[in-house]
Amino acid sequence: MSTVFVVNSGSSSIKYQLIDLDTEKALMTGLIERIGEPGSFIADHAEGMAVVLAKLGDIDDLLAVGHRVVHGGSDFDGPTLITAEVEREIDALSRLAPLHNPANLLGIRAARAALPNVPHVAVFDTAFHQTMPPESYTYAIPKAIAHEYKVRRYGFHGTSHKYVSEQAAIVLGKPLTSLRTIVLHLGNGASATAVDGGKSIDTSMGMTPLQGLVMGTRSGDIDPAVLVHLNRAAGMSITELDVMLNRESGLLGLTGSGDMRDVQTAAIAGDEDAELALQVWRHRIRHYIGAYYAQLGGLDALVFTAGVGENNGLLRRRALAGLEHLGIMIDNDRNELASKAARVISPVGAPVTVMVIPTNEELEIARQVASIV
Ligand SMILES: Nc1ncnc2c1ncn2[C@@H]1O[C@H](COP(=O)(O)OP(=O)(O)O)[C@@H](O)[C@H]1O
Ligand SMILES: CC(=O)OP(=O)(O)O
Ligand SMILES: [Mg+2]
């Protein structure tokens, strides 16, 4: 037996799994939440990792440690052995993913110090999207500035989009290379990806994980001139605008809660702000479904994944209602079935197979780690 320990250090949490490569089962899983929040026992990521590593204890057959890293820029298109140089590059990319890369790096440093005798491998959220064509990743700004400052679309949640689109092909029993798929990763952060024959051809997040869908605390798409306007008219600084868009917007900004469960409960109770937030959330999802349907030249599969996508049938139904003219429809009984398994929720014979597929970023990371060590 050989195992890979996978660490997913988020902005306020550390998720971890010890995965047996032979069976692909998790021998140990855990989550440390609310790091650094008032009342939390854990002050920072270094302390959090110490707790995690104490739980891990001594493992004889540990092959390697895999780390989720959110931003890999254009330099990383696959799993990468972590060296001091790679750590420096991850650090340099922190500016482009301020909620994520610093936390990822703290996790890497703590784990490398505690487990110095095994290889540590970084698996980047951006890697899967490196197949996007230039017309998808280029912003129409002056070429020299874009080049100098690495301004382009990178895309995120790639490990999840890759895993889920491959699982979709397995559920359908068709070759991945023959499928046009849209994956909706709807968690706290959320993104949509168009996957053509197993390759990402477009995705809704941009240079940073701020662009695209409406998220828990992030605005998603916005006219960039809003920033200029708020700077001039309201005297808001660049830092204030950054905090507003990344941490105070999205569902939180529209309703006072960034948790979709609260928003839904409030909407059902008749709260008008919550109802509008759900409509904006849904409108943005449909915007991307339409765009990717056009880009893919048709659609074979549409897949829901992550916290909201996996667990909330009512919101799945709301997101897709009225898209029957595109061949996209949901079977209510299949959709309501309380199940943790990958499954089809469209009616038998529907032109587009709609699915719910639980993501497993940790397993995908372990597989990629095993592929290089
Ligand atoms: N039954 C549910 N209905 C609606 N939203 C849910 C449900 N269960 C979980 N969520 C949402 O899923 C989010 C977490 O999703 P997850 O994929 O774990 O995100 P992340 O990896 O970004 O932390 C939470 O913010 C919560 O709002
Ligand atoms: C990239 C990103 O948004 O990640 P998460 O959903 O884990 O915040
Ligand atoms: Mg996530």
Automatic annotation (TrEMBL):
UniProtKB keywords: ATP-binding, Cytoplasm, Kinase, Magnesium, Metal-binding, Nucleotide-binding, Transferase
Keyword Magnesium recorded: yes
Binding site for substrate: R68
Known EC number: 2.7.2.1
InterPro entries with a match to the protein in the record: Ac/propionate_kinase (IPR004372), Aliphatic_acid_kin_short-chain (IPR000890), Aliphatic_acid_kinase_CS (IPR023865), ATPase_NBD (IPR043129)
Active site: D125
Compartmental location: Cytoplasm
Cofactor(s) listed in the protein's UniProt record: Mg(2+); Mn(2+)
Superkingdom as given in the UniProt entry: Bacteria
SUPFAM superfamilies listed in its UniProt record: Actin-like ATPase domain
Site (Transition state stabilizer): H157, R218
Chief site of localization: cytoplasm
Keyword Metal-binding: yes
Pathway: Metabolic intermediate biosynthesis; acetyl-CoA biosynthesis; acetyl-CoA from acetate: step 1/2
GO annotations of cellular component type: cytoplasm
Swiss-Prot/TrEMBL GO biological process terms: acetate metabolic process; acetyl-CoA biosynthetic process
Positions with a binding annotation for Mg(2+): N8, E361
Cofactor notes: Mg(2+). Can also accept Mn(2+).
Any one GO MF annotation of this record: magnesium ion binding
Gene3D superfamilies tied to this protein: 3.30.420.40
Annotated positions binding ATP: K15, H185, L186, G187, N188, G189, D259, M260, R261, G307, V308, G309, E310, N311
Family: Belongs to the acetokinase family.
Role, per record: Catalyzes the formation of acetyl phosphate from acetate and ATP. Can also catalyze the reverse reaction.
Protein name as annotated: Acetate kinase
Classification lineage: Bacteria, Bacillati, Actinomycetota, Actinomycetes, Micrococcales
